[in-house]
Amino acid sequence: MKALITTCLAAALLMFGSLAQADLTIEITRGSDRATPIAVVPFGGADALPEDVARIIHDNLARSGYFDPLERNAMFERPTTRDEVRFGDWRALDVRYLVVGTASQEGDGYRIQYELMDISGERRMLGEVVTAGNGELRGAGHYISDQIFEAITDIRGAFSTRIAYVTARGTGDDIRFVLHVADADGHNSQQILSSDEPILSPAWSPDGRKLAYVSFETERPAIYIQNLNSGERVRATSFEGINGAPAWSPDGRQLAMSLSKDGQPEIYIMDIGARDFQRLTNNSSIDTEPSWSPDGRSLVFTSDRSGGPQLYRYDLASGEAERLTFTGNYNARGRFAPDGESLFLIHGSDRGYQVARQELDSGRLVVLSDSGQVESPSVAPNGTMVIFATQQGSRGVLGAVSADGRSSFRLPSAEGDVREPAWSPFLD
Amino acid sequence: MQLKPYAKCLALALSLAVLAGCASRGGSEDGMAGSADGSRDGAAGTDASRGGQVSGDRMGDGAGQQDDARIPEVRTIYFAYDSDTIQSEFEPVLTSHARYLRNNANASVVLQGHTDERGTREYNMALSERRAGAVERYLNVQGVSPSQIDVVAYGEERPAVRGQNEEAYAQNRRVVFAY
Predict the structure, then answer these.
(1) Which of A287, A387, B29, B116 is deepest in the core (most CB within 10 A)?
(2) How high is the mean pLDDT in each 10-residue block of chain A (428 residues)?
(3) What do the Gene Ontology cellular component annotations say (chain B) (predicted)?
């Protein structure tokens, strides 16, 4: 028995900001043809609870692209424990894995018992009792989703993570910008900052406790670092010109950024504690959108030194920058996959701007998204999904695509344009 | 004014009225090759479609007929796709602002640079700074003191109009004179 969920969630819970009604919803736009069939049976006793935990798990697994959960109306029986499972019946439905459980109120919180079954092996793979505090039922669902995902795929689940994003409503001089943080499934959105001047480029600190972002609230750009638990924040830079594209070093001690204080945008590294700056690039072209490699030894950034935007890799030991992208005329805003072996980036072509993945060894570039106007890709900490901003009609929405490009979904918002998603690191 | 290589290319293309030929070298500005030809039309589109930013006769508000004590009415100029080159049709606008600033040494202006929404946000931030910088150099050459000019790059963050079409893009590729 584990009771870790309470502490884990408390740490992730933001202690300020209002619980907004503007949660994002999810529409799966493309299912993977290689998804594993699984069934998540409604949990016994769950009808009396405020959240349908089995539905949360079902939706998480479906969204991952790794699983194709059986619809409830196709289930002939609804076992709640292993003893009630008739393996042959589920085999007949071509289901490979089965999740059953019960959920009930216990004191001020909840008690959830679940089991994961391998249908062909007729064996139990997981069994656990999870306790969750008041208001933490969704978190419990994400925790259980993480356990199931890892037990079957051997990949750590990222369902308990969060996303930061920016919404904008209005046009011209009358735009309201709001920085939000929400659960990775779009629920529990909370306002972090609201301004009638632009907010952009949110970036999570590696410990998941802080966000760096660019805000124009003083009518010019400045980079701020905000503690999500306390709400406390500092202005990191407010030089003349552009203060943009903050990116945390893997150890959380440094912030790479683009500053144009010396004439044109150059890449700098700021030591956050010492507040001193090291300039990495020095030329007459645009250098922006830095992102650290997971090993902290290099940064990828966008530069138009060759005429148009392409990605370059700056090696911190040698001080040399090497061009990485050669496919097409527009490759920008690179982000390393967590394993450091590939980059996610925006690739522009006559088909628009799309999320692409480039393997660093081979240089091979593969376009992942299928909509024409995509920005701001951000990789899940387990590397399985990329979230991005795109258009649905004339509205900005968030979309996501699996790292193999096989499945995708969208998170439309009830209000305004949604943009600039940033996927948090693991939060425990 | 210093012309970067692509700006030279663009100026040539404009003079030949074959903008698409230049842009096909690849999208280094806020759009991609292939959608360039429409932008010229859009940039020269009707004032009515530009909302409140532009009032009066844009072309006519040049040197010669302005009251030097008044801020020129036309305070937005537009740019071609993939370009920070000041188009000749907007030179009278810049000249009128240069004259106003020269004659009113206490006045100062913030040049707000903008791009359309295509391409990445931080890269567009840099492109919009280039556009505002081109205007700043033009004013400096015309004798305006650098201390009177400030530049803020907004990138694609503050579109004048919404829409995913060339007309909207053309109205958003702009530098605004904010006094």
Answers:
(1) B29
(2) 39 37 65 85 93 96 92 95 96 96 95 97 96 94 98 96 93 87 92 96 98 97 97 96 98 98 96 96 96 97 96 97 95 96 94 92 90 87 93 85 83 81 94
(3) cell outer membrane
